[in-house]
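Tokens as discussed.
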């Protein structure tokens, strides 16, 4: 069967640039493979004038042609836009040729829709994209937009729009008419052959999608038009004969609830649904309120990609996440919450436990968690206080009921671990130049029954400024004697110059930046400061081991 033309439009555009008779030789003194030509003038001409200038090598020539064609051949209806560019530079006799073909094609026999784009250099294909049975933004919609833009770029001269608004407006309408008439011809012929309504206008992609499903014997639900951007293989559709079943099979979804949601919810928040389903498991997924899975806006197929959560979640963590989701909390914030917890455990050995019970407590916990993580990220710090002082400070202290073990906190890890055990903010003291922090532990060096003590360096004395227990609670009297012994020990070491002001080595997490500073007394300051500026990003000064969590 011969090809039957349904619609055709062709447009030619000829642009020439005239080279200047002379140029400044000093401006172009650098070595070049080709001489640089100065343009004297540029204009759009007709075919008759092009023939006159064609052989003049003082003119560069740009010839463009766009042809819009809708045809029918055998069982295929096609709409194609052919674009050809022939370009010749100054002083050249030969043309560079580029060809571009954008197409839509529907096979009435196999009920398959194809669209795509082919780019050629002379006769060689340099790029080719083709989509099969794609009706959304990746597919039909995108190709129709590409067709319109290609025709528009040739017919409309941007320079003319700026100088003559009326002419520019008329040509804009001309482009719209060409695209509208050609697409009408394409869809009308398919409508005639299939006895389906494919009136061109808003929602044409959804109509075409439904036609494709019907002609392939696939049942679909009321909201199937919302799935036009999703990709489900035809083999799955043929196998299940039902769009919902094929969709769930292709995306590995199971359960009556998801099937129910697809039939009853117009706009599903697929990002939230997929993350919850695959990361929490079907049992915890079923505890999620269906209302929070509704989206105010349409979500597209790329939302199906589930962010990675490297560590398996415990049942307690899953229960907490269900609470957060049901409060309506943004999924990105929930995922960030989990990601920070994972990083704290992986990089800093800090095992953070979720405690929130509602939206307000989640927000508070997320703030605290973010602050904690930022403290860790400031760097790896190692402090020192003299060659022999630390060893003497850490000698055990004999008590009435048990012995006490002073531990000098020197590294970021030790400060963070103390903060976690005591549930306080002592981790924020890791970069302070004027103090030494000692963890006094009852029973053993690893005991969790402990007092966190801050001593300040003064010019002539060591001063204990605070000593607190877990949750910043006041210590009972059993700690008085061991702390008094520790006070005297530090005072003696300070007076003998065995205990020195802190020296600090701060290293970035990647090890690329190392900073060494020491604490010194300057001018009339009663307490020491770093001998050079330290970027510690502290916004405020902690006066106490403030409870943070």
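Sequence:
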């Amino acid at each position: 069967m011969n090809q039957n033309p349904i619609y055709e439009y062709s447009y030619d555009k000829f642009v020439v640039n005239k080279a200047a008779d002379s140029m400044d030789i000093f401006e172009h003194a650098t070595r070049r493979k080709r001489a640089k030509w100065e343009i004297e003038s540029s204009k759009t001409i007709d075919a008759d004038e092009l023939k006159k200038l064609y052989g003049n090598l003082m003119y560069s020539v740009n010839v463009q042609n766009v042809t819009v064609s809708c045809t029918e051949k055998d069982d295929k209806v096609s709409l194609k836009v052919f674009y050809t560019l022939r370009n010749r530079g100054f002083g050249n006799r030969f043309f560079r040729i580029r060809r571009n073909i954008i197409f839509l094609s529907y096979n009435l026999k196999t009920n398959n829709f194809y669209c795509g784009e082919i780019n050629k250099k002379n006769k060689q294909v340099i790029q080719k994209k083709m989509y099969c049975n794609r009706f959304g933004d990746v597919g039909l919609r995108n190709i129709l937009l590409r067709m319109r833009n290609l025709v528009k770029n040739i017919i409309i001269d941007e320079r003319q729009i700026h100088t003559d608004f009326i002419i520019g407006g008329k040509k804009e309408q001309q482009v719209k008419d060409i695209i509208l008439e050609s697409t009408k011809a394409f869809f009308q012929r398919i409508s005639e052959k299939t006895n389906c309504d494919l009136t061109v206008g808003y929602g044409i992609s959804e109509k075409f999608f439904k036609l494709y499903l019907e002609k392939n014997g696939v049942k679909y639900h009321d909201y199937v038009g919302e799935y036009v951007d999703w990709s489900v293989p035809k083999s799955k559709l043929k196998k299940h004969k039902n769009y919902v079943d094929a969709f769930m099979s292709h995306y590995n979804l199971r359960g009556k609830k998801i099937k129910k949601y697809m039939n009853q919810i117009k706009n599903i928040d697929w990002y939230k649904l997929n993350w919850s389903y695959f990361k929490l498991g079907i049992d915890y997924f079923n505890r999620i309120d269906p209302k929070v899975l509704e989206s105010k806006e349409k979500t597209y197929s790329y939302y199906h990609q589930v962010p990675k959560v490297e560590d398996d979640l415990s049942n307690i963590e899953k229960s907490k996440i269900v609470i957060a989701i049901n409060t309506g909390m943004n999924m990105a914030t929930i995922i960030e919450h989990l990601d920070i917890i994972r990083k704290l455990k992986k990089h800093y050995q800090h095992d953070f436990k979720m405690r929130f019970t509602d939206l307000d407590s989640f927000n508070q916990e997320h703030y605290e968690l973010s602050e904690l993580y930022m403290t860790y990220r400031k760097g790896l710090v190692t402090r020192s206080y003299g060659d022999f002082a630390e060893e003497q400070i850490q000698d055990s202290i004999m008590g009435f009921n048990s012995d006490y073990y002073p531990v000098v906190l020197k590294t970021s890890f030790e400060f963070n671990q103390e903060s976690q055990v005591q549930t306080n903010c002592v981790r924020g003291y890791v970069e302070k130049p004027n103090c030494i922090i000692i963890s006094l532990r009852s029973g053993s060096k690893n005991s969790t029954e402990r007092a966190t003590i801050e001593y300040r360096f003064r010019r002539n004395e060591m001063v204990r400024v605070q000593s607190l227990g877990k949750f910043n609670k006041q210590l009972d009297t059993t700690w008085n004697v061991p702390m008094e012994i520790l006070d005297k020990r530090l005072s003696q070491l300070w007076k003998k110059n065995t205990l020195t002001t802190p020296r600090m080595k701060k290293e970035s997490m990647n090890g690329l930046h190392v900073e060494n500073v020491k604490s010194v007394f300057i001018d009339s300051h009663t307490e020491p400061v770093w001998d050079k500026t330290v970027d510690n990003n502290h916004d405020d000064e902690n006066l106490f081991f403030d409870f943070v969590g």
